[in-house]
Each structure stands twice: as structure tokens, then as C-alpha cells.
């Protein structure tokens, strides 16, 4: 009798669909075309073959996976309507264990259709049962070149989870695999029979558990490798003992039996409810639809308590707003094959609240960058928006030469990783990328046991998130993917690994930010973040270089206690204090420094204070006067009769602006006589001039009645001091042109900025500035960060790209009058 195959029919239908430019459709009412209901008293050998031994006869001792069993016919029985495959602890031919394995090769070979089995899985650590398919004729070469389809694999030491995978690619060790897992909401798989199935058509395979779709793989998913799933495949049913995936065997749990109620093959596909199985608390606008039904099917939908059908009742697709209750999305309909009621259980998660950030680039991180096979850099936010308006983000350029490209962080604040497995805690991350929709990002937790070459040892757990949008910020929530090493300690996690597009050779760029840990909100609004502020020194303080000071902070927590306060200078930690008052000693360094304090409460929630900017000055260091250009008029030394206006900026020898020296004014008069001193708004002289009989001029630059530097046009002239203060040493840069002096005026004019502190937008009202011309933003080193042309009496500046800190805003009007004011972001 010729072996049964539906391949020719499938290929014929597929060809007709292509020729007619219509989608391929199987039978509307799927019919069983091959089955075994196991209703007899022995294995039906017209449908199945026994496989025996330890794999050595096939050239793959341990069946290619270091398995410990020897398969025996006696371990396969049929009785009371089920097939039973039993694993036992008994020695035979050098193996410590026996079990059973059967296949349908040359007796049941198929290409395309629906393939399902109802199975009750065994309980027993170390067991590894499977319902799977292999290529019958190996048209494309030996394993895995011709493919493997795992309809269901079960690692009994993780009894609530099953796997659905495909294997393909080049010969070992360059073989490839990918797939997904399904985890029960309640109970474990050995408690009852469950139906495991795939639907397979040209270019696509779909996995189901009890009618629920949980994985889809397409031709594009295996690129650049070949898709071998277009030839005849046959079934295998077995229970392996130990091995690479099975793990350590618990002999006390043997014997253990897998029971199979039926195996069936259909010539078409079944209807199912398609949609999210897990949704956020009070999720809005979630779509559910019926697949494999006629488009005009009338459907009556019902939803869990507290949920609302927004639209679509009566059609094959509905939009649902959820409340707080989990439950079934149900669809009742008649598709022409009979009345049906389908359910999809949907878990509505508890609400989550942010606990702390591992890395967000604008604040000191709680995770430490360790290494990467790609390139990590800190850059300006590429496209600030309402979701992520941070000034800085991380930029990760994936290494196209690394199939498993990794970015490694050291962490010390994951004290119990099991809380992420149980969803008491979750990982969130913002991502901006042009990588294709559907690209996966994996977050992997590792213990000290893990090494680059001993996978899966020490890999505690893996979490997955998927790119859903391109070229815009999106908030990704990571869900549990698997636990590669079930023995890994939950209290020994020291590394967090990010894998962007793992198992690929792509070179996309990923901007990421706000890699955060969230806790379940247990009803009180969750853990409230602590409050912290730096109390000393004050913002804008000018201190002496080398001076020893005490930096102090005040911190409190409304719903707990403060565990510690850590102090940072320019993002670098300088010490930790665990008791109130929180303080640390520090020696002032030259130049501008930014102080922040990070308070962490007893629930590991952290808050960073507003920054405090200070300046360290050395009384003996030389000061350079940097000369730019004059705004209006000309200081003409030759004629001795012209007047002009100019301003001077004083920079230290490191190029940093001396804050109080930026107080300047105008001077005028002939240069044959002394011009009266210019004063600031407090009446303190800030600039003096002296003319000589030779027409030369000396400009003294003074701060708080102290001469910081001299600008002589004629070095033979004497320098006039400010008041009676002694002069400090100083150097003067070469003038770019006679009479040109740098311009930073500060007169007593009126303008206002708000809000201050600001986050993204600063609004400017110019008051008595009749025609504001230019607005500029400086950092404390005197560097111009932003310039905007202004027209009129009000306007605004977008500062969203700037990091948090202290800045100077300068406004210049049409008469070159200038005013500066401090801005806190």
C-alpha cells in the first residue's frame, strides 16, 4: 500500500492560489485524514515504528543530546484508550535508565496541515518528553539542514512550561534553532491532558496549546538561512531521561509515564481566538479576532468582569478595554461546520510602579557598564518626545560580525531574581531604533557560575521584549522567556546581559534609555520614592581650590526608611552615608563641579536630587583675558577721540569662565584722559581705563575690587588698580585687532524666564527690551550651547536636548544691551 501523503494536494492548492493571485485556503471544515486513537491493546505497527537503543547504532550515542536512557519496546504500551511511554530506573546494556520512542516514518509522512495530540505529561525531574517531527527524506541534507519541528517539548523540572521550536541551518556546530514557550496560568502540565498542535502551511508554522496560539514562525524568521519546511515530515513521540535539556534526574520520581490520548492530522485549520494573552492593568484598545472563519461570520463575544467591548460585537473582531480582572475572552459562533464556543484566557496583570533605574544616562546609574561586543556610547536623545524627553540616552551599535552580540552590565541590586520570574517585579526599557518591527531584545540574568563557554550554566533567567514601532521611542516591557539553568541561584545574580536581535548578523543601531525595575503596586500607590536634596554647599558657591568641605544632604521616605545616600561629583561617586545627617567630606577641585545626591530607600527605590553647581578657584593661578570683537563703535587708539562700548569675559587658564568676572559694563570718552570707572548694579567697579599722553590705554579687569588682569595697549603705561586691592598675576591674550575687546555686557535691564527650574521649554518675557535680537544658553564653562534669533517682546527656547544642570541665559537687544540670568534644568 502506498504511504499516505497530503503533500501533492497541498502543493497543488498552493500553486493554484499563486496563479489566481488569491490567498491559499484549506478546507473550511477540516477533516481528519490520519489518526491514531490508541483504542486497541498494542501499538498499531501499520502506523508506528519502534526505535530502540542508546543511539550509538545511529552514530549519535546519547541520541545526540547526552541522554541517559536506552529505548526499549517494552516501555511502550497501549491500554484503556491511551498510549503509554514509561521511563524507568533500570540498567540495560550500559544505560542506567530505560524509556520508549516511536515514529511514523514511511507510515505517516506529511507536508502541510494541522497536526495535534492530546497528552498528559509525566512528572519527574530530569525527564524530557516530546511530540515532534523530522524530515522523512532529508532532501536538504542531514540534521538540521532538512529541519526539525518540535510541536511540544517538556522539561519536567519546569512543570508549568512547554516549548515549541524549529531547528534548521548548517551542520553542527553551526546549527540554528528558535521558538517560544507557553506557561500555564494555574497548575502544571502533569495534572491533566492538554492538546498540543501546529498548523503548517507554505512559509509559516503556528503553535497552539489547548487551542491558544502562542508562536508563529515564517520564512523571514530564519534569514539568511534556508527554510527547509516544505517536504514530508513524520511524527516522533518519546520520553528522554537526562540529557542537555532534561537535566539532573531524580531517581525517586521514577517510574514516570507520558500518556497520549490521540494523534490526529487534519486537511485544514481550526478556528481560534487570536490576541494578547497577558495585558497590562486597565489596558485600553486591545484587539481580539477569530481566525480561520469566513469573514462574514456572526460572532457573539463576552469579556471578563470589568472589561468593556468598545467595538466589533457581532463581527469576527472586537476591541476591548480591560479593568482589573482576569478571565476568558469568549466567542460563540457557527462557521457552517457547526456551533462553536471558543475561549481565550487573558491574564490582567497587577499595576506596577517604578522602583529604581539601572541606567538612564541623565543620572548616576545603579548598574555598571562592563563590556560589549558592539559599541556603546552616551549621546543626546535622538528624538525627544512625550514618552522620553531625557536629554541623554545610550546608543548601541550592534556588531554585525557577532551572532550573539552582547552588552554586559554589572549589577548588585537584584537581591532576589526569582521576583522577576514570578512577576513581582518587571524590567522596562525605552528603545528608539530603525530595526524591523518584530525584532526581539533579550535581557539575561547571570550568576557568578556563568562563563562565556558553559551555557546554560549560571543563566538564571531570560526576558524578552519585541520592537513594535520604528524611529520613535517606545516603552518595552520584558516578559519571562525561559530559565536556562533551573539550578542557578536567585541571590547570586551579578550580571545583566542585553542581546539586541540575538542569533542574527544585523548591524542596526539601538538608542535605549530608562532601563528600570518596577514593583507590583499592592494598592497604596506602590512604594513611594524617597525625597532628597543637597543642603550644603549652596548652588553657585565659589570656593577655594583645595579647600576641604562637608557636603550634606537631607533625605526622607514617606512609606519606609532611607537605606543610604550616595554623593556624586560630575557623575562620579565620592562616598556613601547611611545615617542622618547624610554627609561626605570632599576636597574642592579647580573649575566647575556639579554635586548630586542619590537616596535609596528600604525597598530599593532611588531618587536623585537637583544638581548643585559650584566653582573652585585658585588665588594664585594666572587668568587669561580672551579677546573677541566689539559690538558697536570702534575703540580707535590712533585718533584718541572716538568712544565705544565693549565688555570683557575672564577665563581661567583651563578655559573656564570665572562666574563673578562676567559682570561688565560700557565705557566711553576720549582716550586722552581717564574715563570714569564702570560699576555693576551694586556700585562695585568692574572696569577702569587710563589714557596716557602717548594715547595708550590700559584696561583693568576687576572683581570684588580686586584686579584679575590687565589689558595694556602700551606696555609702558602704568596700571590703575581697582580701589586699593593688590593685583593678582595674570596673562593677556594677543589682540586680534587694535581696540577689539570681547563682549559680555550686563546692564540693569529687565527680562524674565519661566518656568525656572525648567524641563523642556523655557519661555522668555523681555520687559523693557523693545526689540530682543538674540538669546543664548551658556554652560558654566562659558561655552555657548544654543543660540536662537529673537524678534519681539517674548519667545521660547527648547532646552529638551540639554542635560540636567545649571546654565546661563543671555539676551541681547537691538541696541546691543545685554542681560544674563541663571537657569536650572
UniProtKB/TrEMBL annotation:
Transmembrane segments: none annotated. Residues 1-35 form the signal peptide. Keywords: Signal. It comes from the Bacteria. Pfam families: Big_7, Glyco_hydro_16, PKD_6, Por_Secre_tail. Gene3D superfamilies: 2.60.120.200, Immunoglobulins. InterPro entries: Beta-glucanase-like (IPR000757), ConA-like_dom_sf (IPR013320), Glycosyl_Hydrlase_16 (IPR050546), Ig-like_fold (IPR013783), PKD_6 (IPR045829), Secre_tail (IPR026444). CDD domains: GH16_laminarinase_like. Residues 36-271 form the GH16 domain. The keyword Signal applies. Belongs to the glycosyl hydrolase 16 family. NCBIfam families: Por_Secre_tail. This is Family 16 glycosylhydrolase.
Amino acid at each position: 500500500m502506498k504511504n499516505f501523503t497530503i503533500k501533492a494536494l497541498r502543493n497543488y492548492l498552493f500553486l493554484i492560489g499563486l496563479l489566481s493571485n488569491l490567498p491559499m485556503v484549506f478546507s473550511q471544515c477540516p477533516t481528519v485524514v490520519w489518526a491514531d486513537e490508541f483504542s486497541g491493546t498494542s501499538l498499531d505497527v501499520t502506523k508506528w515504528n519502534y526505535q530502540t537503543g542508546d543511539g550509538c547504532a545511529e552514530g549519535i550515542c546519547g541520541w545526540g543530546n547526552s541522554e541517559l536512557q536506552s529505548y526499549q519496546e517494552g516501555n511502550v504500551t497501549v491500554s484503556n484508550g491511551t498510549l503509554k511511554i514509561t521511563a524507568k530506573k533500570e540498567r540495560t546494556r550500559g544505560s542506567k535508565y530505560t524509556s520508549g520512542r516511536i515514529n511514523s516514518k514511511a507510515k505517516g509522512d506529511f507536508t502541510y496541515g494541522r497536526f495535534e495530540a492530546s497528552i498528559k505529561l509525566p512528572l519527574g525531574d530530569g525527564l524530557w518528553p516530546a511530540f515532534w517531527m523530522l524530515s522523512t527524506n532529508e532532501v536538504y541534507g542531514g540534521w538540521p539542514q532538512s529541519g526539525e519541528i518540535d510541536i511540544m517539548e517538556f522539561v519536567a523540572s519546569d512543570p508549568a512550561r512547554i516549548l515549541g521550536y524549529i531547528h534548521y541551518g548548517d551542520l553542527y556546530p553551526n546549527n540554528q534553532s528558535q521558538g517560544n514557550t507557553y506557561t500555564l496560568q494555574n497548575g502544571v502540565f502533569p495534572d491533566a491532558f492538554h492538546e498540543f498542535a501546529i498548523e503548517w502551511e507554505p512559509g509559516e508554522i503556528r503553535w497552539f496549546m489547548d487551542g491558544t496560539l502562542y508562536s508563529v514562525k515564517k520564512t523571514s524568521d530564519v534569514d539568511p538561512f534556508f527554510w527547509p519546511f516544505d517536504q514530508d515530515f513524520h511524527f516522533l513521540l518519546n520520553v528522554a531521561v537526562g540529557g542537555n535539556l532534561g537535566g539532573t534526574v531524580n531517581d525517586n520520581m521514577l517510574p514516570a509515564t507520558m500518556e497520549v490520548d490521540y494523534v490526529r492530522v487534519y486537511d485544514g485549520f481550526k478556528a481560534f481566538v487570536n490576541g494578547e494573552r497577558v495585558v497590562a492593568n486597565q489596558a485600553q484598545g486591545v484587539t481580539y479576532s477569530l481566525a480561520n472563519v469566513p469573514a462574514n461570520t456572526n460572532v457573539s463575544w463576552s469579556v471578563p468582569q470589568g472589561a468593556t467591548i468598545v467595538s466589533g460585537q457581532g463581527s469576527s473582531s472586537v476591541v476591548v478595554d480591560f479593568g482589573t480582572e482576569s478571565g476568558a475572552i469568549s466567542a460563540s459562533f457557527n462557521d457552517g461546520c457547526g456551533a462553536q464556543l471558543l475561549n481565550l484566557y487573558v491574564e490582567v496583570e497587577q499595576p506596577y510602579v517604578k522602583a529604581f533605574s539601572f541606567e538612564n544616562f541623565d543620572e548616576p546609574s545603579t548598574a555598571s557598564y562592563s563590556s560589549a561586543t558592539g559599541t556603546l556610547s552616551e549621546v543626546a536623545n535622538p528624538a525627544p518626545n512625550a514618552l522620553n524627553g531625557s536629554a541623554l540616552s545610550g546608543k548601541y551599535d550592534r556588531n554585525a560580525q557577532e551572532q550573539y552580540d552582547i552588552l554586559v552590565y554589572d549589577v548588585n541590586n537584584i537581591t532576589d531574581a526569582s521576583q522577576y520570574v514570578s512577576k513581582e517585579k518587571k524590567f522596562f526599557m525605552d528603545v528608539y531604533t530603525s530595526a524591523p518591527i518584530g525584532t526581539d531584545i533579550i535581557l539575561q540574568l547571570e550568576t557568578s557560575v556563568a562563563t562565556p563557554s558553559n551555557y546554560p550554566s549560571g543563566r538564571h533567567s531570560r526576558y524578552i521584549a519585541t520592537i513594535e514601532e520604528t524611529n520613535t521611542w517606545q516603552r518595552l516591557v520584558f516578559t519571562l522567556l525561559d530559565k536556562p539553568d533551573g539550578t542557578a541561584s536567585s541571590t547570586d545574580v551579578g550580571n545583566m546581559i542585553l542581546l539586541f536581535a540575538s542569533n542574527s548578523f544585523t548591524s542596526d543601531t539601538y538608542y535605549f534609555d530608562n532601563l528600570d525595575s518596577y514593583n507590583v503596586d499592592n494598592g497604596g500607590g506602590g512604594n513611594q520614592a524617597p525625597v532628597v536634596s543637597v543642603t550644603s554647599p549652596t548652588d553657585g558657591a565659589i570656593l577655594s581650590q583645595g579647600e576641604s568641605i562637608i557636603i550634606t544632604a537631607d533625605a526622607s521616605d514617606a512609606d519606609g526608611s532611607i537605606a543610604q545616600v550616595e554623593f556624586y561629583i560630575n557623575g562620579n561617586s565620592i562616598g556613601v552615608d547611611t545615617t542622618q545627617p547624610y554627609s561626605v567630606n570632599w576636597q574642592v577641585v579647580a573649575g566647575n563641579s556639579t554635586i548630586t545626591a542619590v537616596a535609596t530607600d528600604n525597598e530599593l527605590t532611588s531618587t536623585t536630587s537637583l544638581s548643585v553647581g559650584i566653582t573652585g578657584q585658585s588665588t594664585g593661578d594666572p587668568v587669561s583675558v580672551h579677546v573677541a570683537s566689539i559690538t558697536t563703535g570702534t575703540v580707535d587708539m590712533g585718533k584718541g577721540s572716538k568712544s565705544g562700548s565693549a565688555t570683557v569675559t575672564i577665563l581661567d587658564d583651563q578655559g573656564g569662565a570665572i562666574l563673578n568676572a562676567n559682570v561688565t559694563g560700557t565705557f566711553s570718552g576720549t582716550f586722552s584722559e581717564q574715563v570714569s570707572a564702570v560699576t555693576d548694579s551694586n556700585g562695585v567697579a568692574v572696569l577702569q581705563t587710563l589714557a596716557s599722553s602717548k594715547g595708550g590705554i590700559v584696561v583693568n579687569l576687576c572683581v570684588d575690587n580686586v584686579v584679575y588682569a590687565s589689558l595694556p595697549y602700551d606696555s609702558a603705561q602704568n596700571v590703575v588698580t581697582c580701589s586699593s586691592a593688590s593685583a593678582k598675576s595674570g596673562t593677556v591674550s594677543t589682540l586680534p585687532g587694535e581696540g577689539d575687546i570681547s563682549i559680555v555686557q550686563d546692564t540693569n535691564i529687565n527680562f524674565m524666564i519661566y518656568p525656572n527650574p525648567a524641563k523642556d521649554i523655557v519661555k522668555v518675557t523681555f520687559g523693557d527690551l523693545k526689540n530682543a535680537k538674540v538669546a543664548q544658553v551658556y554652560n558654566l564653562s562659558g561655552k555657548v550651547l544654543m543660540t536662537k534669533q529673537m524678534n519681539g517682546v517674548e519667545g521660547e527656547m527648547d532646552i529638551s536636548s540639554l542635560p540636567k544642570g545649571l546654565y546661563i541665559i543671555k539676551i541681547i537687544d537691538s541696541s546691543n544691551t545685554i542681560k544674563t540670568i541663571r537657569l536650572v534644568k
